[in-house]
Amino acid sequence: MLGESRSNVKATQSGGTFRFTELFSMASTSHEQDNKAGIFFSSTLLLWLVSVLFEIVFNNRKELSCIIAGACFYQIANRVIRYLISRDPLFVNTSVSLLHSTITSLSVVSILVTQWLRNGSSGMFEHSQLVGDTWQWAYPALCFSCGYFAYDQWDMLQYRLYSGLIPSILVHHLLLLICFTLALYRNVTINYLLLTLICELHSIFLHVRKVRRMAGIRNPKSRFVKVEWVLNWITFVFARFTSHILITVKLIRDAHKFEQGIVLPLALFGMAGMNLLNIFLGIDLFNAFRREKKPQQMNNNHHDE
């Protein structure tokens, strides 16, 4: 009996050691993947910064300084929030993202309304307008927003606000930085890219949801939460999903009007990536909606019993 007992203890200890070793191995693998992703995306961000500074300094592209101004503005906002409200990296990052979504949405809407009132809707969305022309304030607005994506990429890398070997959020930002900066360098498709930023209307409510959950406001019966979800779904459908589909359709219909070169392939590749990410975002949003509704349904069933 004593021998059996000792054998069981050894077996338990052995099993515990195995489980601990397995968990440690999984954690090490995850950490190694995060390191590889961090090194790759940090390198691409550094190359991007060198490219922008080269254009500003050596090619005298002073208008691109708005990119640096945008990155500095959001970095300062980061420090202010960190000093005055919270030092939690995720809360600070989300709050700055909410600020960016609000500023960008107001900028895009004001530019479109101003253009509409000044010249009317006639020809506003023609190919020549969207590709070769630039609406007033569209260029600096795009530069400023591009600066935010660079800041956000750095902030997530600095505080490891990502996971996995290929983090979708870092891929998304890298894709935007490539498309935006190449368009800004060549001064083409500025109006097209401005239209894609209408999706920031939806991002406002994504970030609001994240901030209020971190603040502990999670009651699904709350009127604020209900209104937030309604606005979340409306803006997702119209400001993000539908608008990006329409832009893609417009690109395909006007494909024959593009000159030969990289502009059309890059635009189609960028929109394909954004539409794919929108599908994944919609799935995540639906799952989050179901999770928040479950406690309410369980409480209702409990009361019925």
TrEMBL record:
Cellular component terms (Gene Ontology): plasma membrane
Q: Where in the cell is it found?
A: Membrane
Reply yes or no: does the keyword Transmembrane apply: yes
- Highest taxon of the source? Eukaryota
- A biological process (GO) annotation for this entry? membrane assembly
Q: How is it placed in the membrane, per its record? A: Multi-pass membrane protein
**TLC domain location:** 86-294
User: Membrane spanning segments where?
Assistant: 37-58, 90-117, 137-154, 161-184, 190-208, 229-252, 264-289
Database matches in InterPro entries: TLC-dom, TLCD
Annotated coiled-coil segments of the chain: none
**Which keywords are on file for this protein?**
Membrane, Transmembrane, Transmembrane helix
**Keyword presence, Transmembrane helix:** yes
Pfam families, per database record: TRAM_LAG1_CLN8
Protein name (database record): TLC domain-containing protein
Per the UniProt record, the source organism is: Acer negundo (Box elder)
